[in-house]
Amino acid sequence: MPRAGLTTERVVAAAADLADETGFESVTVSALARRLGVKDASLYTHVRGLQDLRVRMALLAGGELIGEIEAAVAGRAGKEALAAFADAYRAYALRHPGRYAATQIRVDPSLVADSPALRRTSEITYGMLRAYGLGEPGLTDAVRLLRSTFHGYCALEAAGAFGAPRDVQASWDRAVEALHVALEHWPADG
Questions:
Q1: From the CB of residue 190, how many other CB atoms can be counted at a distance below 10 Å?
Q2: Mean of the per-residue pLDDT values of the chain
Q3: Is cis: bond before 97, omega within 30 of 0?
Q4: CB 14 within 8 A of CB 32
C-alpha cells in the first residue's frame, strides 16, 4: 500500500531537487528514500527502479525547460527569438544543474512521443528555426548545432572552466550573435 502523501509526482520532484543539490549521478533510490524518510521498498510503488526514476526526472525537467523557453520566445522571431531561447536555456541549466543533467540522457522515443511537453520542444525549436527559412535536412542540422553549442557552453560554465578574464556573459552574447549569423547564411543542402 502506498505511503500516505507519497505520490509518483512527489517522488520525482524530490529526486529532481536532490539532483540539483547533489548531482544527477548521485541520485539513487536509497538516497531518495532517506530524503523522503521512507524505506527503499516504499518507492517501488511509484517507480520501477533507478532507470525509471531517471527517465521520469528527464521528462519532468524537459517539460520545465521547454516551458521556460516557450515563455521567453513568445511573440519573438529571428535573432530576438534565438537570443531569448538561448538565454532561457542557459538560465535553466545553471539554476537547475541536476535537472538539466537529466535532460541529457537518452529517453526512449516512444516516451517522448507520449509527452506533450517534449513534443512542444520540437515544435518550438523548429518553429524558431523556420523563421530563418530552413527546411530539412538543414533544420535537423541547425537543431544539433544549437543544442551542442548551448550544452557545451553551459557545461563548461557550470564547471568553472572559463578562465580567461573576458566576461562570460559577453562571450555568451557573442556566441549567440555568431549562431544568428550562421543561421542567416545557412549553407544550401547538398
A1: 4
A2: 94
A3: no
A4: yes
Torsion, CA 96, CA 97, CA 98, CA 104, rounded to 10? 110
String of DSSP letters for 127-172: HHHHTTT--TTHHHHHHHHHHHHHHHHHHHHHTT---SSS-HHHHH
112-128 pLDDT, tens digit each = 778 888 889 989 999 99
Q: How confident is the model at residue 2 (pLDDT cuts 50, 70, 90)?
A: very low
Check pLDDT > 60 for residue 4: no
Task: Give which of 89, 63, 67 is closest to 149, Cα–Cα.
Answer: 89
Q: Tell me, what's the pLDDT at 16?
A: 98
C-alpha to C-alpha distance for 163 and 130, rounded to whole angstroms: 36
Between the alpha carbon of residue 150 and those of residues 26, 91, 128, 143, the distances in Å are 24, 11, 15, 10
CA atoms within 13 A on the CB side of 138: 16
